[in-house]
Amino acid sequence: MAFRVPEIYDNPDGWGPSNVVGQVKSIPYAPYNKGERVGRVADWSGQANYRGARQRQPASDTQVNSAFFFTQENEDDFQLVDMSKPTKRYGNHRRFYYYNKPYWNNRNRRGRQDEAPAKNQPRQKMSKAKMNARARYMSYRRWGNQFDHKPPREASVHVRKDWKVVQEFPLGDLQKAEASIQAPEDLAFCGKVQAYDDAYDRVGTRSERVLERKERTFFNVTTSDDPVIQELAKGGKGNVFGTDTILAVLMCATRSVYSWDILVRREGNNLYFDKRENSQIDFLTVDETAAEPPTDDKEDDTINNAQSLSREATYVNQNFSQQVLSDSKAGHEFERSNPFLEEENPDETVASVAYRYRRFPLAGGEYNIVVRTELDGMQVVKTGEKKGTRQYFTIKALNEYDPKKDIDWRQKLDIQRGAVVATELRNNSCKLARWTIQSLLSGSSTLKLGFVTRMNSKSNKQHVVLGTQFYKPKEFATQIHLNIRNSWGILKTIIDACMKLDEGEYVLLKDPNKPLLQLYDVPPGGLDGPDAEEEEEEEAAANPMLNFTSLLSGASFVPDASVPVVHVARNEKNE
Fold it and tell me: How many C-beta atoms lie closer than 10 Å to residue 369's C-beta?
């Protein structure tokens, strides 16, 4: 059989056949570049991604190779079952990556050196506070902060079942309220005020002064028991009455975090804002607006819990306000004596405080607010146009209890006083705002701030004064971003709602866990009735959550022997 040589077509103009041969006319052809790598001779599956993204066929290849496509069964539901038993791991295996071998060797070596000398030696007893702190630390290491839910705070006053909510004031809405007042009018001056000692303006961290204990009586009488306010109410001098402390709490309600309560009493056309006996607003708060406020755990009996710090701050503030006054300089005594001084004790040492009664026309004179304000000190101007005139002060004190918490005052107060004030503004925004409002209500020309710290951070019995700073109340309000028009707007909103009520007693309560003010209608005898205490004990026994002590409840402020508390006297003649 002879071999037949096929016909060869020569293309003199280029590479490849010159014309299409009839035998290969119906066979599809995939063009390719000469520079591409040919991985396979023929791809009958039609999939062009077998060489990865860099060696994929052009997009036109799918159209050319469509003749070779075929239907393939879907194998996505197929799973390979592993019947082998998995190895069990104990604990968190990732923790071994955090330590290296030399660390463990050194740790074991130290452990052998620190072995207990004898098994019969009694173990050191750990306090409950340390045990709780250790349990929280171990829980955080194991679970993180996913279970770190703080228990809800309790209200400052026990809300009984027969109390009815009359109206609610969301703090977000109160932030938008605004109002303006007219020029205030002085109605009466009472008491005696001493002169300020200029030597405390030169006190610094290198020339600190020991805080002395002053055995003096401070009066803290509520609005309705004030004989001067009763006299002004009978004379028709106003229709809204209150003290600077109570009104400052209302006007700074949007900054408060802790729960507080104020008694509202409608009597005829008059409105009285009162406080309960042993109310929490009589005591200062510490780090109320801080990121990590003091603990309010009942089992935490340390000196840095919320209750102990509140008593300590009140003690420091009262003694500082009396220590910076001069006994040698002549003070000023007003025509009317102290209205709360009892006749039975004429020789009683009374704190140097003057009472200034002022009237503020609000809402175009619709409300005439009569306020009892306090003046802590005075100073005679020696130079300038006001030479020889008296200027009155409001004296307050900031206290430091832990130098390692934020900024050490002993190191930064003289060189970075602005940073110290900024830190206190962040941690005690509500307290500083209340002090500023009280200064503006009293008409003080200067707000004197003292910086007091513990002599030893582990003891709250002895303190030292590290420095003083004075501010103009209006300028300080701008510095701390306190909107005065908004403060008066908050007060006007509350007065508008209370003036629509019927005669009787009401309680305005700051919700302990929500940004909300609630106005309750209290039946007669609902606050101090005989069944109030029994009902509170029954609910506390039925609900374990009620056993948590309120952060600043009136019953929690029991005088402690560790911190001497200045006696606070109250007027009992009109009760």
Answer: 24
